TrEMBL record:
<dbReference type="InterPro" id="IPR036249">
    <property type="entry name" value="Thioredoxin-like_sf"/>
</dbReference>
<dbReference type="InterPro" id="IPR000866">
    <property type="entry name" value="AhpC/TSA"/>
</dbReference>
<dbReference type="InterPro" id="IPR050553">
    <property type="entry name" value="Thioredoxin_ResA/DsbE_sf"/>
</dbReference>
<dbReference type="GO" id="GO:0016209">
    <property type="term" value="F:antioxidant activity"/>
</dbReference>
<dbReference type="GO" id="GO:0016491">
    <property type="term" value="F:oxidoreductase activity"/>
</dbReference>
<dbReference type="Pfam" id="PF00578">
    <property type="entry name" value="AhpC-TSA"/>
</dbReference>
<feature type="domain" description="Alkyl hydroperoxide reductase subunit C/ Thiol specific antioxidant">
    <location>
        <begin position="16"/>
        <end position="131"/>
    </location>
</feature>
<protein>
    <submittedName>
        <fullName>Thiol-disulfide oxidoreductase</fullName>
    </submittedName>
</protein>
């Protein structure tokens, strides 16, 4: 099943807006994050930087999705631009479109039913969402899953394992 399109209000580190559908033929690794999420800053974003460096030459698109569900006043596009510069994040980052009608959940986060940040999204070459994990995934596991998708083999379903290996920031009730 084809995954829902990202709902992005602005793209950073990209000369033009990225659409998930336009990435067909490429493996896509996306990470939903918040710049004030400790697990994102210490684990997920460094991992995405490394994935971008290692796998982009092999046809993998790495994308950050800044999904702000708390501390809205502090996490502005201007603050995010400074954050990306300071942390030397060069891969494309989309700012998730805010919720509507007083909904604090950003639209992409809501469309995917994300629990919080970081959330890893892995898409196959056909644009299908093959894996969604809330929390940190080990580098070895992520690398193996990316290579599996690059080799067009089916990933294990992970039955009995939620796939997380570390800290995460949950959406408040």
């Amino acid at each position: 099943m084809t995954a829902p399109e990202w709902r992005i209000s602005e793209w950073l580190n990209s000369p033009e807006p990225l659409r998930l559908e336009a990435q067909r033929g490429r493996v896509v690794v996306a990470c939903a994050f918040q710049m004030l999420c400790p697990g994102c800053v210490s684990h997920a974003l460094p991992q995405m930087k490394e994935a971008h460096q290692l796998f982009a030459p092999l046809g993998v698109t790495v994308v950050g999705l800044h999904t702000v569900f708390e501390h809205h006043a502090a996490m502005t596009p201007t603050a995010l631009k400074a954050f990306l510069h300071e942390y030397r994040i060069g891969f494309p980052v989309g700012i998730d479109t805010p919720g509507t009608g007083g909904d604090p959940m950003p639209q992409t986060m809501r469309a995917y039913g994300m629990q919080g940040t970081p959330t890893l999204l892995l898409y196959d070459r056909a644009g299908n969402l093959r894996r969604q994990v809330f929390g940190h995934v080990s580098d070895l596991r992520l690398g193996a899953e990316i290579m599996s998708l690059l080799n067009d083999t089916r990933m294990a379903d992970g039955a009995g394992d939620d796939g997380t290996d570390g800290p995460a920031c949950s959406v408040p009730d």
